[in-house]
Design goal:
It holds the Pfam family Peptidase_M23. With 289 residues, the chain is an alpha+beta fold. The protein folds into 3 domains: 1-31; 36-100, Macroglobulin (MG2) domain (Immunoglobulin-like, Sandwich), CATH 2.60.40; 106-282, Glucose Permease (Domain IIA). The protein has helices spanning 3-19, 22-28, 122-139, and strands at residues 36-40, 44-48, 51-56, 59-62, 67-71, 79-87, 92-100, 106-109, 171-174, 177-179, 185-187, 194-196, 201-209, 213-219, 224-234, 241-242, 247-251, 262-268, 271-273. Strands 11, 12, 13, 14, 15, 16, 17, 18 and 19 form a 9-stranded antiparallel β-sheet that branches. Strand 3 (51-56) and strand 4 (59-62) form a beta hairpin. It is globular, with a radius of gyration of 27 Å.
Length: 289
């Protein structure tokens, strides 16, 4: 064969070999998109499967029955965040968590019957400040938590439990005066009906608060705290161990209320979330995929 033809033939095979090489093939393949989940303010995301430890925004906590849960505070800034998990096999994985805004429902209460909550006296303002100083560290995120003694979904705080009033996170005014956002879900239950713990746990606080009225706070482990407000009376005390479904008090209308009902709230890893998301099958929660 002519020497020039040999050279052309050799160059052709070199080019063909490069085109089919693993390096070239790798560059032409489409990269696998990162895992992600969309979740609204006040909601909970989950990452299921062989989880050991979960982390988000410089906070970390143990998984619950092999699943990582990421509660989103109702006032968390919407945006693109990174979450991570450590699997039972020791692998560290990350995903995108996209928080979407959930506009607060406007709730204007007029003809409020309890005037001491309209024009609050200096004595009651001081009382409320003292109560907040005691409560705040109890419901805040803790780097070290007791092991979880609950399963999801949690139990119902009353039986039967009527449909909630849909006012979690509501932006409120009372007689035209702006008030803090509503931190729980209200259930229209008659006075005197029993209120029960939604899970096994330990009573953090049972107290008569200025705004909350008779209130019970229960630690269920792994940073989950349930709250029950406006009770007529409670039947538990701080540090008492309670069981799921145990009666802890009865519905009333104490504190800043217009009438009898149960205010049920939840704090999880310090985040204030809609408690309704813990009453449904976890499979229905937004999931990392």
């Amino acid at each position: 064969m002519h020497p020039i033809l040999v050279s052309i033939f050799s160059l052709f095979w070199v080019a063909l070999s490069l085109a089919l090489s693993p390096v070239h093939q790798k560059n032409t393949q489409t990269a696998t998109p990162p895992k992600s989940v969309h979740v609204g303010q006040g909601e909970v995301a989950r990452w299921a499967g062989n989880c050991k430890r979960c982390s988000f925004e410089k906070r970390a906590w143990p998984a619950v029955n092999g699943t990582c849960y990421y509660p989103i505070d109702m006032e968390m800034k919407p945006g693109d965040y990174t979450i991570s998990r450590r699997t039972t096999g020791g692998k560290l994985e990350t995903a995108r968590l996209l928080v979407t805004e959930k506009p607060c429902r406007q709730e204007d209460i007029t003809n409020f019957p309890k005037q001491e909550y309209i024009t609050v006296s200096p004595q009651n303002l001081a009382r409320a400040a003292r109560e907040a100083a005691v409560l705040r560290p109890l419901i805040a995120y803790q780097s070290t938590v007791r092991p979880a003694v609950f399963d999801l979904p949690v139990g119902k705080p009353a039986s039967p439990l009527p449909r909630g009033e849909g006012n979690f996170g509501a932006c409120r005014t009372i007689n035209g005066q702006a008030r803090d956002r509503h931190t729980g879900q209200d259930y229209p239950i008659a006075a005197g009906k029993p209120v029960q713990s939604v899970g096994n746990g330990r009573v953090l606080l049972a107290t008569d608060g200025f705004y909350s009225g008779n209130a019970v706070y229960i630690d269920h482990g792994n940073g989950l705290i349930s709250e029950y407000f406006h009770l007529k009376s409670f039947t538990v005390k701080a540090n008492q161990t309670v069981q799921k479904g145990q009666k802890i008090g009865i519905v009333g209308e104490t504190g800043r209320v217009t009438g009898p009902h149960l205010h049920f709230g939840v704090r999880w890893y310090g985040a204030c979330i809609n408690p309704g998301f813990l009453l449904i099958d976890p499979a229905e929660l937004p999931e990392v995929k």
